[in-house]
């Protein structure tokens, strides 16, 4: 069981440390544990309760009301919140955090399905999953989660995306533009690429999806065969590459006749040198604009 400082709890829940201390004195809401050297800390169960309290506060409940509730009553109320119509609300993100921290696939499935039924895949990804992934990054920095937690939750999100992609109608070859999607050698973070696959296919285009960790020497032969209108990749892991411009130059060298679009953390934060065949996509709205602007095709939208 992990140990969390009050600053960790503040970072993960958004509840100020000063507020937590006041709650301890006024409501005896959660009593911190102490190490053998008398240092205060909170455990996994405390974190889960703080996350639930944060959700209840976001739903409009007052802390004085929450303090009178038992843990069972809080959990029951949280279940009711997860059944409400969701509009990218924080209760969904909080529920996903709980599912990840407790490795509870059933909670993940219920939360995701409620969001998908209400919002569809694209809005769920934009308004729920993207903020959730940012929160995962914060949890990494705080040491709240380990690789098993991230692998567990990203694997489940990946499955949902693949199911949504497979449910889309095939493109019309006479109208569709052709996109070649890949992650270069050394890059394995695939969720962004999968979501791009979904958005492109949902708009009636054809995608050749090559997945992660594609060797550079394979790019040219595949592109010569497929002849895409656009090649798209994501650069996420700065530990996988040195200078981001070196990796982009290497990709462009292996795709001498095609337009390359690059997204991901390194594309956003790096100082990218301009190139006539290079487009930098900094966020999802830019990705949508790129797809819509660069392809004249009757756009079909599907929900899953």
From TrEMBL:
Domain of life assignment: Bacteria
Regions that span the bilayer: none
GO molecular function, one term: DNA binding
All copies of domain HTH merR-type, residue ranges: 3-72
Repressor listed as a keyword: yes
SUPFAM superfamilies reported in the protein's UniProt record: Cobalamin (vitamin B12)-binding domain, Putative DNA-binding domain
Keywords noted in UniProt: DNA-binding, Repressor, Transcription, Transcription regulation
Pfam families, per the entry: B12-binding_2 (PF02607), MerR_1 (PF13411)
Stated name of the protein: Helix-turn-helix-type transcriptional regulator
